[in-house]
Design goal:
Layout (H helix, E strand, L loop, with lengths): L9 H12 L4 H12 L4 E6 L6 H14 L3 E6 L7 H12 L6 H7 L3 E6 L8 H8 L8 E6 L5 H5 L1 H6 E5 L5 H10 L7 H8 L3 H14 L10 H10 L5 H12 L5 H7 L5 H8 L4 E4 L2 E4 L1 H14 L1 H19 L5 H11 L21 E2 L6 H11 L5 H11 L4 E5 L5 E10 L4 H6 L1 H12 L8 E10 L4 H4 L4 H9 L3 E9 L3 H7 L3 E4 L8 E7 L5 H11 L17 H13 L4 H4 L8 H4 L6 H12 L6 H12 L5 H8 L3 H23 L2
Length: 672
């Protein structure tokens, strides 16, 4: 027992080590001690960038509360289901009571101190938290939110919460604290000043810098304005083997990593690789597997892409194929795999406007109950009294209530209503009940229609309450999911606001048609033609498109559009032929003919393709049909047929053939 304290525990040693590692936060600790000493309730909002030390401080604060024998618990929203039920279940487990007795248990406590870590993952629950959960807590409760984001307007302007709110932004460590941290980590003093300058006091960057300095020798570290890339460059260079390097890169690129994923993507005996990953200082465990700290993930992934673009693209595609196999498998695992697949699209900067990658897999969504149809229709009338929305909603509630999706607030009120369904075609009842389908049906008919056995994936926004940006970024995930899992898809269609174009671009070339919907501002039908490309190939091409430069086969992609995408791009461009600005930003702008400078504009390319039809007597009738439809468009399709001087059925046949001829001409140029 020499030198050992009787009764000492490992937990005590761990707490001592964590206390030593928490440097430069004396001010924040003192502020929270004052909160604990005061009898008043308090809402503390701790916020700062990823890796700045919020979770470490939360652990210390919880210990301070426990030392005072207060009822304290931490809920990490990164590790639990981001719903009211998930949060309550986690709290109940922390206090060792059944969920149904949680409220009673909290009210019986002398004082409650609750911590919600990584609250940025709880955006879908903020209304429930503010209006239902917090008001039911004991009067002197203390609630702490630790988030990458500052409190929103609702928290800062509400008269009640504003009085209770204590906002604590957590900045990087100052120079003195950062130096003390490096000294505690046994980093040679000769390198302290350089490392403090390089890291700018970011705690996670300091941790990585200290690890590299100990293993490599501080004199080898190079000063660089690209701090984290330089640090991770040194770290990655010294992993035990190429297999470990591959495992690290996979863990940075995937949403979650477990042994199964390692085995499917990296291969071989992966148990040791997984154990090594789990022991890394920036790796966190979760019910789904391992995930790196957000900052470490970004750095490792960016470093890999910078070092080896070909290898990076190969990993991206290999992981994508594994995940797509799972998406095509049985539910509910297929849905989780789908969100893992969506996570791969984060490398495309366009999609951050329309997908909240931090919120993947969250959202309080269900289907309407039979008795609430009338209330939903009345709400639609209140929101959009002059639109067809209420009638559209009534139609689908009667026809396919199981395909209507409701995004609810904490009171159960539907704030966002959408329709997601799969159709074999358009029948007369649906066309009469939903005017948006009439435009869609006519457009698909012009594109050749749906043959027997083919299907249409349809996603429609019906109505939306104002000020719901987090929910709006969740609304159309289903359209992609259904397209991936539905066989014999001819067209994938999304009827929504025109601003959805960025996400539509990720799906591939699409036609865009104005439609009537229950919303303010212009609404558009985005139509992806999947008849000419196998569904699985389309999925892989979409994942590959996020990279921006590599092709599905692993070779560098040539500038331009793939042959299967050109006809759809031509259809979309012809519809905008007389609208110059919009025409020049269609998918045809991505062709090699435009990028190489062979044609100065999309209009010039289309004009040349149309002119090619004038040289063949049998094709001139096709050219006349195209002119009547797009170049000098007649007011209706019937009027266009009359202008050309042929029966309507003949006109439609000529129009379809003419589009094919134009697409063939452009496709031949793409192959040169």
């Amino acid at each position: 027992m020499d030198g050992r304290r009787k009764g000492a525990t490992l937990g005590g040693r761990l707490r001592e080590a964590r206390t030593r590692g928490l440097v430069g936060r004396s001010g924040e600790i003192a502020r929270f001690e004052a909160v604990l000493e005061a009898p008043e309730p308090r809402l503390v909002w701790l916020h700062g960038v990823g890796g700045v030390g919020k979770s470490t401080l939360v652990r210390r604060w919880r210990r301070l509360a426990q030392d005072r024998d207060l009822a304290a618990a931490v809920v990490d929203l990164q590790l639990v289901e981001g719903s009211p039920e998930g949060i309550e279940a986690e709290l109940a487990a922390a206090f060792g009571v059944p969920t149904e007795r949680l409220a009673e248990h909290l009210l019986d406590a002398e004082r409650v101190v609750l911590f919600f870590d990584t609250w940025e993952h709880g955006a879908a629950c903020e209304a429930w938290m503010g209006e239902a959960f917090l008001p039911a807590l004991p009067a002197e409760s203390i609630v702490v939110f630790a988030s990458r984001r500052a409190p929103g307007v609702a928290w800062r302007t509400d008269p009640g919460f504003r009085e209770l709110l204590l906002e604590l932004p957590l900045a990087n460590l100052d120079a003195a604290s950062a130096t003390r941290f490096l000294a505690d980590e046994d980093v040679p003093s000769a390198r302290h000043a350089a490392l403090v300058t390089l890291t700018r006091g970011h705690p996670l960057a300091l941790t990585l810098a200290a690890e590299v300095a100990r293993s490599e020798g501080a004199e080898r570290l190079e000063e660089s304005p690209r701090l984290l890339s330089a640090l991770m460059d040194r770290f990655v260079a010294k992993v035990p083997s190429e297999a470990h390097r591959a495992a690290l890169r996979l863990a940075a690129h995937a949403r979650f990593t477990d042994e199964t994923l390692l085995r499917d993507v990296v291969g071989g005996d992966v148990a040791d690789l997984f154990d090594w990953l789990r022991g890394l200082p920036f790796m966190t465990g979760s019910p789904r597997g391992l995930m790196p700290h957000a900052l470490a993930r970004d750095v490792i992934d960016a470093d890999f892409r910078w070092r080896d673009r070909e290898g990076y693209g190969a990993l991206h595609r290999r992981l994508g194929r594994v995940l797509l196999d799972r998406v095509e498998g049985p539910e509910p695992a297929a849905l989780e795999a789908f969100f893992d697949c969506l996570h791969l699209l984060r490398v495309d900067p366009r999609l951050h406007q329309v997908i909240d990658f931090d919120q993947l897999g969250t959202g309080w969504v269900d289907v309407p109950q039979p008795e609430e149809g009338g209330a939903l229709i009345q709400r639609a009338r209140e929101l959009y009294p002059e639109s067809p929305g209420p009638d559209i909603l009534a139609h689908w509630l009667a026809r396919r209530p199981e395909d209507v999706r409701l995004f609810r607030d904490h009171r159960g009120v539907a704030r966002l209503v959408t329709l997601h369904t799969v159709l074999d075609g358009f029948d007369a009842v649906d066309l009469a009940g939903d005017p948006s389908l009439r435009t869609l049906a006519a457009t698909l008919d012009e594109m050749g229609g749906v043959e027997a056995g083919q299907r249409i994936v349809l996603s429609t926004q019906i109505f939306t309450d104002p000020d719901l940006p987090p929910l709006l970024k969740l609304r159309h995930h289903w359209s992609f999911y259904a397209t991936v899992r539905t066989t014999n898809v001819a067209f994938a269609t999304i009827l929504t606001s025109a601003a959805f174009g960025a996400f539509a671009a990720a799906h591939g070339p699409s036609s865009r048609v104005p439609v009537e919907l229950a919303m303010k501002g212009p609404a558009t039908a985005f139509i992806v033609d999947l008849r000419s490309i196998p569904r699985r190939q389309w999925c892989e091409a979409m994942l590959d498109r996020a990279l921006g430069e590599e092709g599905p086969d692993g070779a560098p992609a040539r500038a331009g559009l793939p042959p299967g995408a050109i006809e759809a791009a031509v259809r979309a461009a012809l519809r905008l032929y007389v609208r110059g600005d919009e025409l020049e930003v269609t998918q045809l702008a991505s062709t090699a003919s435009i990028r190489s400078g062979a044609f100065p504009s999309v209009k010039a390319l289309l004009d040349a393709a149309l002119e090619s039809l004038d040289g063949h007597p049998k094709d001139r009738k096709l050219l006349r049909a195209l002119h009547a439809a797009y170049v000098r468009p007649a007011p209706t399709r019937e009027a266009a047929a009359e202008r050309v001087g042929v029966p309507f059925s003949t006109y439609r046949r000529h129009l379809k053939k003419g589009i094919e001829r134009v697409a063939e001409w452009i496709a031949r140029r793409e192959q040169r």
